[in-house]
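# nightly structure sweep
# worker-07 picked up a monomer target from the shared queue
# config: single-sequence mode, recycle default, output format = structure tokens
# input follows
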Amino acid sequence: MLGLAEIDKTFKIVYNTYVNSAIPAIRIRITGLPRTFVYSARGDMAESVPRRLRLAPFVLAAVFCALLAFFSVMTELRTDPELAEWWTQNVAQGVVRVIGALTSFLPISVFEILVIVVVACALFLFVRLVINLCRARFRKIFMGLLAAGVAAMYVLDMYMLSMGFGYYRAAMPKYLAGDDYNSKQATAVADFVLADYNALAEKFKRDKNGCVVRPYTFGELAELMRKEYARLDDDYFFSYTPKAKPVVNGWFMSASLITGVTFLPTGEANVNTAAPPTTITYTMAHELAHAKGVMREGDANLISYYVLLSSKNDYLRYCGYVATFYDFVDCVQLAGDSESFSRIIASVSPLIDGELAYTYDYWRSQPDIMGEISEFFNNWYLESNGVENGTGSYDDGNQSGTVTPIDPDTNKPIIDPDTNKPVVKPVYSEVQKTYFRIYESKFGTPSAE
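# output follows
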């Protein structure tokens, strides 16, 4: 009888007794060969049996290729504005409505759970990869990579179904006034806003850091924000508003300088609850704008500011002021009234400045390296979705300046007869014109005299 100790370790040994023979045989298979060689106890080869091919690698490879093909086709199709608009309104909106309705029953973020699971699985698979490399188990390595590829492509396809087309859709409707505001009109609006802002700053309780204490639980605030977004009656915005979710591991998001993430494959707008109180509120408004079908960052900022600033709720309006007041009040100086601009800046409540100082110090205290990594990947993500200026798009709609009109007859700047100097006209930012529009909706156009 051939002993086990005499057989090379590279062989896998299995004993087999043939039905029509009393002589035991030894089946020896060399890993990687397509046939199995069977020998008798005397060492003579009894038969050569073909190995059965395993179907699992082919099935996984076919699924991966199908998912990759779908993603590639969708990536090309979404650049057509008309198709992007149709898809966002009819497919993405349906996905968000169905999935959001399911995940809204859970008080915790499904997205955060998935991130934790992915990180845990990645660590586990890395350890298994090292072990399999050491043991030369290349088939298992190949199967593991295929399975990971299938999972990744499934997530990317779900992303494309729910979010990917939104970056290429039509321009968002905006609630703006015109540029025809002179210095007196701009100052009148700024004085009204300043009075409201200072009054609200005195109204709320504050914590030890000088920040306003939020008068609502996170859940109450999320419901309140859904009602505010219901005021947007344009069909451009999704009719369904998902429920914002708190992120438990906000410390990690803060270290990465991230205040919120909207992930529509789970139908959720996720908010960093470790951030300063007012930041949580206007971040929630921004992330819900994404969940309403507004993917571009500048548009999401603008519509979230409008929702907060036009609200009748004092706390929401205060948070809107915190996010935008200093961007807005520059309109007074832009219109040519530097004296009124200085007066307004000097009249801002110290309570407001204290809260802003704490918020600034909070973000400055976070590690630079994490923020730089986060900025890099966020910029790459936006550029891969057709946003040419990447993370600079957050400031879209907040650019202002001046122009000097040219006389078409002389092709020279128009001269002001009173000052004998070239006429300079302000070009207000969309944020500033949002303030003008809200003021007009309450009091009409301010007097130009």
